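[Meeting: bench + compute handoff]

Bench side (C.D.) handed over the final construct sequence. Compute side (W.E.) agreed to return the predicted structure before the next meeting so the bench team could plan truncations. Sequence as handed over:
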Amino acid sequence: MPATRFLNSWMRLFFSAMLCAHAMLAAAQTDFPNKPIKMVVGYSAGGPTDVIARLVAQDLSVSLGQAVVVENRVGANGNIATESVATSAPDGYTLIVNTLSHNVNAIMGAGKVKYDPVKDFSPITLAVALPQYLVVGYNSPYKTMAELIAKAKSAPDAVSYGSAGNGGSAHLSAALLATRSQSQMVHVPFKGNAPALTEVIANRVDFMFYPMIGVLEREAQKQVRILAVTTTQRYTDAPQVPTMAESGFPGFEEYVGPVGFLAPAGTPPAVLEKLANSIRTTLNKPDINQRMRQLGGVVIGSSPTEYRTWLREDHARWTQLIRMANVKE
């Protein structure tokens, strides 16, 4: 009997503790946020990802009533920042602003990268997609995609393409084009998009996929010629430019560079939803939406569930391409 009374007493204490814990968790979720939120960016200040993060953070600070601070943790192509957030408390107060490298680094650096891009994170929203233009020098002999591909198929290594480095969006997009066109092209990596574009303008490199920001101005200055765009429909700011699908290569619109927001795995769904709804409201404000367009971004604003599905599909897409094209670090 004493043992039974002891067991019953222990069970009452256990369930009381569980109820208290659930009550505290529910209160924390209801009050969220009640302290500053940190957005971690794995790249230097001033780049597109950083600028987008700061635009969102500034508006959220007002709408959420708490400071939202951007922290730049640079190194290893975003890995240092991503790994730090993966092991942070799953409470919604530490987020990673993720890009293409979130999935690609984990694929190309399998066994070296210290995070699982799906299991270690709770998706919040795919905020903005960053399509690309395929550009050649303004005086390039290639005036259409058909001419460029015909030359590439005429002989191995007849055409070269530039990029900001191995595993970046420009490299992988061109590798996808080479795979889809069944041609062999020469990859010329540079330390950044700017020096790569300089060589394309000078016709020392044949083409590259380049973020949309600033390209129309360069075309107006007769520095580049735009052969195609990776959007689903023709881009409203450049209706004369055919899509990759119209150029004979459908599906490129799926291989976009994302700028999204993730929290550590285990973050409460109510917190994720509140963050997603708040970010979506920010993105839909006319002035911020216009600024995103100026940065070459297309506003998405997905739900946490939609972003989880997208990330899984994106991981599968890049895994297949990296293996087929034999892309190495």
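W.E. noted at the follow-up: The longest strand covers residues 121-130. C.D. will use this when planning the next construct.
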